[in-house]
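Ticket #4471: structure export looks truncated?
Reporter: QA, pipeline team
Priority: medium

Steps to reproduce: submit the single chain below to the structure queue and open the exported record.
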Amino acid sequence: MSSNRIKVLKFLTHFGIGGTERQFLYAARGLDRSRFDVRVGCLARIGPFLKDLQAVNIPVSEYPTSSLYSCRTLRAQMRFVRDIRREQIQIIHAYGFYPNLFTILPAAVGTKCVRIASVRDLGVFSDRNRIRSMTQAMACRFADCVITNSSAAREWLLKQGLGGHDIHVIPNGIAIPRESDYRNDFPVRSEFQIDRSAPLIAVISRLVRTKGLEYFLEAAAAVTARFPSARFLIVGGACAEPEHRAELENRTAQLNLNGKVIFTGARNDVSQILREVDISVLPSLSESFSNTLLESMAHGVPVIATSVGGNPEIITDGVNGLLVPPRDPAELTLAMNTLLESPELARRLGKAAREKVVREYSLERLLQRTEDLYTSLLERVTGLQYSARHRSA
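Actual output as written to the record:
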């Protein structure tokens, strides 16, 4: 390959299963390798997505840290700067709070490369610790550009005092699945002993408190009063807040939903699950830009989501999904009952949802936007011209 390729270092905390990690993987693997020489840096060389990078021979460098405010971290940052200089990295792209703080300021002080920070939430850290919000804002001020994945996240950054900085919105993208054909096999329903004719409603999400799962359980209890055969899947792990699963399971028992609500844990067959469910629900209390919504919509599944953060940027209520207020089980119940009572409405919303994702949120669109931003920033900083390649959306 040409030695004139642009050298990009993409930096992540670790390679666990999550929305940010999945978008990182899509971009790292998908960038045009004839134009970009991609390397990866991380704070911890762990997680299932690591093998996907290794499979395409992307080099991974680890900079272990136990705390961002320690002498060990300072030494790791000094090694990071030396590596950047030695490898002649031209662009650093950090994904999320810890990578932003670890990479951006040292790179600004010790290198001449283009620095890109990414903010992919709506101040989850600031809700718990104002200092963390302030330190991230400081890191962003030393970046040449900040990327958010939603306009809602961009507006949140502006409220943090970053109005004079270059902030770009690049929405998430996904690989578009083929349209689901009629299937005679239902492996997920068979695994959990769910009748093929039973209404099946799923939440696909990490089990953390910001996802509003307790309100989903309240609504599920009300839905079963009208649709007693309905079953509910909660798909996702509880690594970040392990005690929360027990809390949700206790609430399930209190609502007499045992046997009707199934906690599947983390799964690697989400695409198959979406082929078998009737409704996908996202009851989040805070959300920047949800991969779950995109994946559900891409499979043609009718979606219900709370009207928070970037969700209204994806869903137009009554056109390609339904929006409900957060923390409102009564409205969530009404929305689920409406779709179960009107299969034709559900089919129409599912069809429109898939069309929107295909049109606006394909993986090709994500990669094109990212590549265009990389080259434009490099041209702005260096004054050199870099050729563009246009992808088909």
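Status: closed, not a bug. The export was complete when the record was re-opened. Leaving a note from the reviewer for reference: The longest helix spans residues 363-382.
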